[in-house]
Amino acid sequence: MKERLIRENLESLILNYPELSHSFHIAPEFFMYETMASRARLFPPMIHSILNLMADDVRDRNIRLIMNGYLEVLEDLENKGVLTVTENGHIKIGEMFEKRRRRKTMRFINAFKTARKVLLTSALGTVSRTLALLSRNRSQFDSNELGNSCLTRRITDPHDYVRIPTARGLAPLSDRTDIKAFATELLASQREATVDIERIGGILNDVYLVKLSHGGRQDRIVVKSFRDWTSLKWFPVSLWAVGTKTFAVLGNSRLERECAINHLLSTRGFTVPRILYVSHGRRLVFMDYVTGEKLSRIIKKILKSPAISEESVDLEVIGRFGRELAEVHSAGIALGDTKPENAMVLGKNRGIMLMDFEQASRSGDKAWDIAEFTYYSGHYASPLGGTRSIDSMTKAFIQGYVCAGGEIKLIRKAGTPKYAKVFSVVTLPHIILTVSNLCKNAK
Fold first, then answer.
1. 328 within 8 A of 270, measured Cβ to Cβ
2. Domains in the chain: how many in total?
C-alpha cells in the first residue's frame, strides 16, 4: 500500500514539475503529509482526526510510528532504482524512473491512472471508518466548520518537504518569500542597512535590481518575476514562430526551467549566474548581479566594421560561443533562447557566461538554438552595409561549433526555410539569405 502511494506521489511530482523534478530534494515526511492532505481533500471530516494525530503532546510519537513504515518502503524502492537517498536523508527521484514517467505518450495515461488510484484508495480506506468517525466526533463536524478552509490550512503543506537547491541552501517548493523580505533577511545582522529596489527591465517578465547598502559597501542582486504570458502581449511572440518553435508560456513552467537548467549546467561545469534563492509561491528567482560585456555589444562592433580581420579577437569570442553551445548540446540540453543578449563575456580571458534558461529543456530543438543566434544576430546589421561582416561572423560561429563536436546536420537544418522564415520580421532578406546559405553548406 505505501509503496504504491510513494510511486504515485513521485509520478505526480514528475507530471506537475517535468523540468524541475530531477533536481528535487524530497524529505521522507513529504509522503506522509501528502497522503494526509489528499485524504483530507477527498473527505473533509478526516481533518479533525489528522489534526488530533498531530497535536503537540502526541505529534512526535505519532510521526515516528508512521514514518517507520515509510522508511522501510523507501529503502526497498532505493534497491529497485526508483529513487536514491542522499547522505542527509533526502530523496532524489531515480533517473530511469523519471525518464519512463516523462514520456509524452504516457503522460495522460499516468495522470488518469494516478488520479484513479488515489481516489479509489482514499475512498476505500475512509469509507470503512466513516460511521465510527462521525459517531465519535459528531459535534465537530458541523457543516459550517467543514467549510472552514482555515482547518485545511492547519494541515502541514507537503511541499514544505520538497526542496530546490540554491546557493543559500534548499528552498521549499511552498516558499512565498517576497523581494523585500529576502533583502531584509540578507541584512538582518547589519545595522543602519538600507534596501533599494529598482525595476530595470523586462518585457515578458519583470526584472528588478536590489541594492543592499551596509557598512559603507553596496551589494546587488537581480530578481526575476515570472508572469504568465496569456495576455495579448504574448500573441505576437507566439505568432512570430508558429510552426517552428513552441514557447513555454506559464510563469511556473518558465521558472522551473530557469532553475532546473541553471542547476544542471552548473553541475556540468558551465558558467551560469548563481541562483541565490527561489520563491516558487511568488514566482521569484533571486540571482547574483553579473558584470561583463553583453555578447550583443560585441556583435554590433563586428557588424559595424567594414573590414573585419579573420584574426579579430571579437570573432574569436563568437567562435568561443559556438564551442560553448556545442558543449551544451552534447550535454543533452537545448537553450531555447539564444539571442546574443542572453550571453555575457567575462573578464580579461573573455569567457562565456550563459544566461536566461526559461525556454531551455532537456528535450528541445537544438537546431533552433543555432538558427536564433545566427539569424537574430544579423538584425544588428546596417541596411546599407554589405554581407562581409555577417559572413565572417557566421563562419566563426560554425567553425567553433563544429570544432567542439557539434553536429553538422543541426547547422544544415538551421539553414532551411522552416527556421529562416521566422526571422524575416527582424532581419533583412539579404542577411537571412547569407546566413542560410552558410548553414546549409556547412562542412
1. yes
2. 3
